[in-house]
Amino acid sequence: MQKINVVCVGKIKEEFFRDATAEYLKRLSRFAKVEVKELAEGKDLEEEAQSIFRAAKGYVIALCVEGVKLSSEKMASHVKTLCDKGSEITFIIGSSFGLSNAVKDKADLKLSFSDMTFPHQLMRVILLEQIYRAFMINSGSTYHK
Prior knowledge:
By secondary structure, the chain is of the alpha/beta class. The chain is built from five helices and five strands, in the order E-H-E-H-E-H-E-H-E-H.
């Protein structure tokens, strides 16, 4: 089964974000083993970077505003290519301070969901939904329409 890690700096405090996260993790469980790794916020981005480096495995995708923007279909195609190669995939969501340049530079892909900035707690839900959408597109489902 495909292994996907979601490395997040910081915890989700609001119950509605936790509920949404749990829902998408449940939906994804038929396609992949998805593990969310919550890391403690550091005193600075470099301290957070060291924790991220220890947690990241396989093909690393850093979420950052300056990254490439992909349609849901192109994201699905990229995920399929990685899955077909047997690559473990790690998505990284930084803290409210973002990600260090060191993390961005070491990532295999820098991915942006928008020119807008989203709260990192909401971004976790958005990311999990898009990963689920990618698997649904790849399975031929009409969910994404």
